[in-house]
Amino acid sequence: MKKGLIGKKVGMTQIFDETGKVIPVTVVEAGPCTVTQIKTMENDGYEAIQVGFGDVKVSRVNKPMKGHFDKADVAPKKTLKEFRLESIDGIEVGNILKADTFEVGEIVDVKGTSKGHGTAGAIKRWNFSRLRMSHGTGPNHRHAGSLGACSSPSRVFKGKKMAGHYGHETVTVQNLKVAKVDAENNLIAIKGAIPGPKGGIVVIADAVKA
């Protein structure tokens, strides 16, 4: 990985390219992120940087984390994330990373937490078809149907698609294109949709499969 940022999903909108074509984009408030720690081969066995995003009151930080931020001489941050970079040369604790870390046209991966739907039925969770609404199905129009054979194997197989908890999972969308960068306001417009609700925390990084 060459670079990465933590951001907050603002919402979706659309922009127009030079030919007048509409591009659906998701706007992300990417940064400013502060480098809070540098991991080195000598101390930690690998090289990486720890980045913080979003200011938080000192009273909301526990003592170990307060000591961590005091050691780095940076204001307490709400979200911390580690990035393993190809090289950490020239990066120092306290450096500020902004939206202009990325450029228009770059391919990125975006990781976020998907919207939570609580406990959902098989139709909503797995896109099952409902049973017929006419005679013969009784009140069970949206039930999942048969779960398996009876006497053999006398159990439900692991991984069976059933009703249950839906959403609120870590999701990564790969190979998205940076459509626009507003460095002054720390905004990045990414073509397409990204996981999570408005206001959700996302991580933008170089695409691993580009």
Name its key features:
4-stranded antiparallel β-sheet; 12 strands; single chain; 41% strand; mainly beta; 6-stranded antiparallel β-barrel
Description:
The chain is mainly beta and 210 residues long. 9% of the residues lie in helices and 41% in strands. The strands form 3 sheets. The chain has a 6-stranded antiparallel beta barrel. A 4-stranded antiparallel beta sheet has the order 5-4-3-6. Strands 8-9 form a two-stranded antiparallel ribbon. The longest helix is centred in the first third of the chain and has 10 residues. The radius of gyration is 23 Å and the shape is extended. The protein starts with a strand and ends with a strand. The relative contact order is 0.26.
Largest sheet: 6 strands, antiparallel, barrel
Query: Distance N terminus to C terminus?
Result: 12 Å
**Total strand count, please?**
12
Shape: extended
| Rounded radius of gyration (Å) | 23 Å
Low-confidence stretches: none
Q: Could you say which structural class the secondary elements and strand pairing correspond to?
A: mainly beta
Kindly report the spatial arrangement of strands forming the biggest sheet: 1-2-11-10-7-12
